[in-house]
TrEMBL record:
Positions contributing to acetyl-CoA binding: H145
Gene Ontology MF terms in the entry: transferase activity
Alphabetic keyword roster: Repeat, Transferase
Organism: Pullulanibacillus camelliae
Name of the gene: epsM
Domain PglD N-terminal stretches: 2-81
InterPro entries xrefs: AcTrfase_PglD-like, Hexapep, Hexapep_transf_CS, PglD_N, Trans_hexapeptide_repeat, Trimer_LpxA-like_sf
Protein name stated in the entry: Putative acetyltransferase EpsM
List of catalytic residues: H136 (proton acceptor)
Pfam family name, one: PglD_N
Site (Increases basicity of active site His): D137
Length: 214
């Protein structure tokens, strides 16, 4: 199956390695605005993000991954491209565990040693990063990023676009609002509003910001 990658930074390199570890996939294009022209090298196309439209025309059956770590930018790119959700590839590292009763949205990436347990729901274009634990009955919306070694205990809700920093812990039944940021190492014991940055043990709201870059 032919795959195109949108983004060519550090997160993209990690995603590409996962995809290439599965022999059913072949990466035939990498697209990032660092590339000013459309070219082909060793069988792989390179070009700016706008050249994705040409690839959609030339290879209508290929799958796509937006491999960009920034949640706002990832959403903007998904919204700007005319790619049907059915053509986004859900990427799962072979050393991750995803419960048979969990559900993952299209375009989501699950990194090595991540755990997604029973009845968890993860939305579209999310990132469950290395070693993150998403426990039973969690509800994660689109474009979230759960950073390395984060623990979301049971029945946690993470609303659209929120990033939970590396090594943070969220206790059971807590809800974190849209497009918020939880600092690395924080412990979240109470609900957090949308559009905030929270840090500390226990986590407290330190600043407010625009929601989703809007």
């Amino acid at each position: 199956m032919k795959v195109g990658i949108i983004g060519d930074g550090g997160h993209s390199r990690a995603v590409q390695e996962i995809i290439l570890s599965d022999k059913q996939y072949e990466i035939i294009g990498v697209f990032d605005d660092q590339y000013k022209g459309f070219d082909k090298s060793n069988g792989v196309y390179f070009g700016p993000i706008l050249s994705v439209n040409k690839m959609i025309t030339d290879f209508p059956e290929m799958k796509w991954v937006v491999a960009i770590g920034d949640n706002v930018m990832r959403r903007q790119i998904v919204q700007s491209l005319d790619i049907d959700e059915g053509h986004y590839l859900t990427v799962i590292h072979p050393q991750a565990y995803v419960s048979p009763s969990a559900m993952l949205g299209s375009g989501t990436v699950v990194m090595a040693h991540a755990v997604i347990n029973a009845a968890a729901r993860v939305g579209k274009h999310a990132i469950i990063n290395t070693g993150a634990i998403v426990e039973h009955d969690n509800q994660l919306e689109d474009f979230v990023h759960i950073s390395p070694n984060t623990t979301l205990t049971g029945a946690v809700t993470i609303a659209e676009g929120t990033q939970v920093g590396a090594g943070a812990t969220v206790i059971p039944n807590v809800t974190i609002g849209r497009w918020s940021i939880v600092g690395a190492g924080a412990t979240v014991i109470n609900d957090l509003p949308s559009g905030c940055t929270a840090m500390g043990m226990p986590a407290k709201v330190r600043t407010r910001h625009e929601i989703g870059g809007m």
